[in-house]
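Please decode residue identities from the backbone states below.
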């Protein structure tokens, strides 16, 4: 068995191992807006960490003193939306993942419709079967290199869910058909599943 100490590794080597081992990763398709400029970008360092209060987190890479548009917008407005990426939207999500100048509207580029949040000042994807409006709790920065992380912690204040997606607050996973991120250019669907009963 090979053994690696992170202290002896390059950040790029650590990154490759992490994205290959922490799989599949759910994708946060984050909608933000600053002034009159909407922004839409995917992040695969994403999860939920609390239900009471309802808290989700995602991480935007890069130094905090030169933030990506998403991180800048959230820092300025304190608001964002998360839009679940279903298989039918995977290609559109991928289009929005490019490094575009701040004035470029990724909603338009990806061919999806922005709808301003009911509570937060951030647009969601109208065509998504599930979206969450979130307010910023905190941003925690780790490191200052290209592969450093800025953990965005947000409170969910409103859910938007397709009428046929939820029954008794249980989401129909087949209907949602979410995708996850693997390493490199690889993605996974959530169709192949099995059940295990938890011990008492």
């Amino acid at each position: 068995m090979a053994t690696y100490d992170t202290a002896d590794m390059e950040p790029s080597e650590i990154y490759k191992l992490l994205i290959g081992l922490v799989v599949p990763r759910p994708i946060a398709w984050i909608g933000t807006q600053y002034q009159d400029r909407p922004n839409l970008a995917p992040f695969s360092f994403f999860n939920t960490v609390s239900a009471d209060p309802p808290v989700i987190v995602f991480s935007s890479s890069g130094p905090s003193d030169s933030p990506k548009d998403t991180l800048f917008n959230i820092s300025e407005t304190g608001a964002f939306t998360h839009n679940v990426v279903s298989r039918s939207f995977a290609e559109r999500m991928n289009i929005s993942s490019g490094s575009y100048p701040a004035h470029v509207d990724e909603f338009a580029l990806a061919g999806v419709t922005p709808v301003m949040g009911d509570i937060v000042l951030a647009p969601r994807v109208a065509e998504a079967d599930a979206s969450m409006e979130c307010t910023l709790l905190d941003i925690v920065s780790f490191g200052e290199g290209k592969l450093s992380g800025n953990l965005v912690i947000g409170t969910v204040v409103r859910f938007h869910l397709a009428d046929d997606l939820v029954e008794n607050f249980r989401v129909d996973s087949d209907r949602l058909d979410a995708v996850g991120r693997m390493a490199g250019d690889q993605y996974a669907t959530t169709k192949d599943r099995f059940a295990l009963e938890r011990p008492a």
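Observation: The longest strand covers residues 130-142.
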